[in-house]
Amino acid sequence: MRYRLLGRTGLRVSDLFLGTMGWQEASPEARRLLDAYAESGGNVLDTAAMYGDSESVVGELLQGRRDRFVLATKYTPTIDRTDPNAGGNHRRALVRSLEQSLRRLRTDYLDLLWVHVWDRHTPIEETMRALDDVVRSGKVLYVGMSDAPAWLVSQANTLADWRGWTPFAGLQVPYSLLRRDAERELLPMARALGISVAAWGPLAHGVLAGRYDTPGAVAGDLGERERAMGRAVVEVAGELGVTAAQVALAWIMARGAHPIVGASTAEQLKDDVGASGLALPEEAVRRLESAVPFDPGFPRDFVEAVDISPEVYGDAVHLLDGR
């Protein structure tokens, strides 16, 4: 496993993050998963307040080795549906959810706290100031944002820079060969602001792991788009002598993002970890990215066309190497 720095911090995080949403009991298999991940060099565990008993299970399994991991959880969804203030991104919901998460995880601090989703009813100024307060208290070390528009994250980090608050170091988005929407605005924004990207749903519910390409598999409601991409990943994997999941995950990592893998067995996790360090040939990448259509849309397609236009930047535009 290799490591990258989280955003503009000095925190080292592994190529692959381990998602624990499916951990609803401290079973022997969950322990094997954690052991296999640690042995591979993985160090980021991702959970959330709304993932059932996941936080409690993670807390139990980490007893005696909590400091070995970058422990991350999320808040926003309500922790009490009868209380209108028990959810959202306002200060009260943050404090209440954080205290509950710390108790469940059996720790006195979180390495990374994610805002789970954009709350349109709470001013981003309140959220950022409240996050900075819990960082200053020592209960949280770094913060990140999940499932929000690029303009909001940009505004949030600009406010943080101006006011001396803690900025978002990470961004969680759905991202895979089958779901590339983040390339329109979110990934360019993250690169420009120095924010690390974590990709959830990297294997598209198993489609990109070849799950529906095996004898006897039930494809269910898969459309031709999913089938075409699934075939392309399996074909490239066969040519390279690796698995389909490794190809799909390696593609994400080559784009600069950290896949959040939610393996159900230690063997499956070891296979996923094999994607770390796998370099896909350029020809294979072209085949994968052309297997199904993707339209970057406006403004990216328009700006990229203008960027090489002599009518806009003069005849020397093709001689400019950029940064």
TrEMBL record:
Gene3D superfamilies: NADP-dependent oxidoreductase domain. Residues 16-291 form the NADP-dependent oxidoreductase domain. InterPro entries: AKR (IPR020471), AKR_Detox_Biosynth (IPR050523), NAD(P)_OxRdtase_dom_sf (IPR036812), NADP_OxRdtase_dom (IPR023210). GO terms for molecular function: oxidoreductase activity. PANTHER family: NAD(P)-LINKED OXIDOREDUCTASE SUPERFAMILY PROTEIN (PTHR43364:SF4), NADH-SPECIFIC METHYLGLYOXAL REDUCTASE-RELATED (PTHR43364). The keyword Oxidoreductase applies. The keyword Oxidoreductase applies. GO terms for cellular component: cytosol. The lineage of its organism: Bacteria, Bacillati, Actinomycetota, Actinomycetes, Streptosporangiales. Pfam families: Aldo_ket_red. This is Aldo/keto reductase. Keywords: Oxidoreductase. Transmembrane segments: none annotated.
